[in-house]
Amino acid sequence: MEASSESIKIGKRQSFPAAPRVWGLKTVFVNLYFAANPDGSWVLVDTGIPGSAGKIKEVAAEIFGPDSKPSAIVLTHGHFDHTGAVKELAEEWDVPVYAHPMELPYLTGQSSYPPPDPSVGGGAMAYLSFAYPKKPINIKNRVELLPTDGSVPGLEGWQWVHTPGHTPGHISLFREEDRVLIVGDAFVTRHGESAIAVMTEKREVHGPPSYFTPDWGSAHHSVETLHDLNPEIAAAGHGMPMQGKELRQQLERLVHDFWLVAVPKHGRYVHEPAVVDENGVISVPPPVVNPVPTVLAVAGAVAVAGLAWAVLNRRGNNRQDDGDSKRSRRYSIQRPYSHNRPLRQTPPRAVDPDYDDPTEHTNNYP
User: What pLDDT score does 13 carry?
Assistant: First the structure.
């Protein structure tokens, strides 16, 4: 029986329509997708945050019927918010999990991802990234490699596209017949670093979440690749689906101005990407100062200053006209760095032969 949007007749709708035969489910701040064939068979794309298995099974039943299970799980990448329920669901459904070979170290317990950079992004989601799960998961007994011909197991008419940068083996999925794109985190459709944006879901195209992106050169090339597909609909890992002229215009602007609007001014990976290979992380640039203590200190200072001002104001001392307290703010139009950054094809100076052993992969890098 063909699954359709009409088949979702529930009292409390949890899923949202993303495209023909594609439904999304938001788990707190990240989306996963149910993609179906005309005959009703389907594939789960990503598995949300940890603890999402029950909700995913409930929504699958609402869309496809009781006891329905996918033919496979496909991972756009292995970050914790996209693999939270993968082990539990793969075991319970007894289905394979497909991923790009460059993601295998992070899905088989071999290597952690490069550390997040909470100094970039300027929002609560970025500031808190130091506390997000970083260790690799191990689904060695379930994970399989995506076919080299670009086909997506279990989905007719779809192809996977390698879109690295946010992670080394990041992929996106594309259905050519109607130009539907499941993006993963190659780009997002809301401000990825802002907790307020998570709640408001204002739709606008942004680069990948900056605090978890260790290779900006590759990330730019990936956005160019997806732009060249001329998508009609884009369903992202973060943000609601976008479509049509608005999507294409904003995606074109992102490609054109990527180094100005997507890449942070400063940060751990801005000038030197993490160095990785098929075994995992080799080396990473040195960390930058964590902004969280500074932010808290500034917030405390502002609070104290505000209290002092209120006391003085009540006493009638040192009152000044409001206009005298305003300060003009200057916003720079141009960014003070070169676009000629080292890419994966030309490894940066992050590998020091005196200290970094390319054959040794551990989770103990800085």
Answer: 73
